[in-house]
Amino acid sequence: MEQSRIQHIIEKISTAKIAVYGDFCLDSYWIMDERGSEVSIETGLQAQAVARHYYTPGGAANVVANLSALNPAQIQVIGTIGDDMQGRELRSQLENLGADTKALFVQKEDFNTYSYLKRLVDGQEEPRIDFGVYNERSNETDQKLLAAIEQALQDSDALIFNQQVTGSINNESFIAQTNALFEKYNNKIVMLDSRHFNDRFENTFLKCNDREIASLNGQVIHPGEDVPVTEVKKYGRAVYEKYKKPVFVTCGERGIIAFDKTGAQEVHGLQLKSKLDTVGAGDTAISAITLCLAAGFAPIEAATFGNFAAAVTVQKLYTTGTANAQEILAVSQDPDFIYNADLAENERSAVFLQDSEFELCEPGVLGKLGQIRYAVFDHDGTISSLRQGWEEIMEPVMMKAILGKHYDTVDSQAFHRVLGQVKEFIHKTTGIQTIFQMEGLVNLVREFGYVPEQEMLDKFQYKALYNEGLMEMVNKRMEKLAAGELGQEDYTLKGAIAFLHELKERGVTMYLASGTDAEDVKHEAEMLGYAHLFDGGIYGALKDYTKFSKKMIIEKIINDNNLQGNELAVFGDGPDEIREGRRAGGISVGITSNEVQRFGHNPAKRPRLVKAGAHLLIPDFSQYKKLINLLFQENVKYADA
């Protein structure tokens, strides 16, 4: 979706009037710090010290917070709170968000405000403490709520009906009377998001997740289990056909699927490199989607906008965050989509081309082949193995940077928690410029908090530390190469050089583009004897890192040569170049190379390349003749799946 369209949506939703019925909750966050604790004189027990605490809207109140962040014309809340300090704090927060709270009714008996106390110890959440578990909403309160719902259906552009708390609807008559209202106002937008009663309400739009849509079709899904997208599409169509109202199914990192009279329309999830917290993402999605619908936009546009909004929220840690207009605009600019997430996680469903080791990830690419005139290659892990093992050098550099003087003394559990995040970060950022990886390292050092701010290095200093270790390894290998102890074949992937020569013979203009420093890339390509083949140029990271990226190179090639997408092929073992090739409309070929033996498949590379959008996966170039036949359609035998 173009930025101008996003801006148009933001402007239009500012005229929408939204009402929210639901379970209004207060989320309480206590940041614990044992360094301030003491033993109680009175009890002899160890006290637990709270370093700081804060409170945020939760449940339906978080939906209101998300609506408020996008500045609609009006927000009305319809719900129940207790006569307690949590209820007073919650009402105050809702009013500060600009919401009308006249229909937020106080029930003095048998009702405590829903509140969830979350204690955080060393960044990890302890078992939650819940308030309001034994609430019993009275018939009198229900009647007040029903009257407010009917008024909202008359006055508002849309109503969000949000139910999250077990037992929050305890009177059967409330469901029946609500359904009667939804039938009476069948022309109004009512967006249902109910954890326990999705199957009990009618005449509503529906927002649910993949497990919930499966349950509505009678399937038993275990906690944490993902439902394949193909199945989600089947279940979503069935629910739409039953109620004839749009359905929106959120699928985590796999995005959102919208169902309406046009069928199932898939919105890809976004690849995000930062640490994620998915709490509240569903509230963000339903808020953004409903605002779009209320402003008159089609379900597919609503789902796309909601997907961008949720991508903002999941990057906000330890809070049920919101997404404002500026943040949505930022995340929607050149987004990194996740493709074929189900295929990425299930190698058993891979489809290979006849008589080859080539995995076909996108069958539609076969119709685009045969027109390649330009090719962009990543270097390390794609052609060269000189830098094989760089991850093993970056990992300890990052660990020592994050833990500082605590590196040798931190307990094993904390060490492995940091290590897990470091490995995940390196995995996600393979192929991008080193300086951007070091920028991410600075954020990790700050986030973990082991190193005081005044002792932290900047991204350039961290890069220098990493390069020192890396170049020590590379230089030793280069010395053996120069001495003739090892040759070109010992530091290049099987068949890679022969493949380059085949492209050259067919008049393909080739470019080498690496996240490694430009001078080093050129020197290594020359030492390995193939620099001259890259007549388009050899590119790498510059001192002014803003002046180089693989995206810039690919865009320049397309613009300078007025290319159609299928005239460009991109080859690489990292998601960065594969993603940029896909974004540009080119043909993206992922290399799942085993860099240690320089031939064969490394299964660890496959998921990230599939998600980045690879059309085709190859382990190496050992079958380069078959690859040439396929890419140039010189022998269609290899184009049959």
TrEMBL record:
- The question of whether Membrane is a record keyword is answered with no
Q: Which GO terms describe its molecular function?
A: heptose 7-phosphate kinase activity; heptose-1-phosphate adenylyltransferase activity
Record's keyword terms, sorted: Kinase, Transferase
- Pfam families (UniProt xref): Hydrolase, PfkB
Q: Any one cellular component term from GO for this entry?
A: cytosol
Q: Determine the domain of life of the protein's source.
A: Bacteria
User: What CDD domains is this protein classified in?
Assistant: HAD_like
Annotated InterPro entries? Carboh/pur_kinase_PfkB_CS (IPR002173), HAD-like_sf (IPR036412), HAD_sf (IPR023214), PfkB_dom (IPR011611), Ribokinase-like (IPR029056)
Q: Any idea where the Carbohydrate kinase PfkB domain is?
A: 17-321
PANTHER family, per this entry? Answer: BIFUNCTIONAL PROTEIN HLDE
What name goes with this protein? PfkB family carbohydrate kinase
Taxonomic source organism: Dyadobacter fanqingshengii
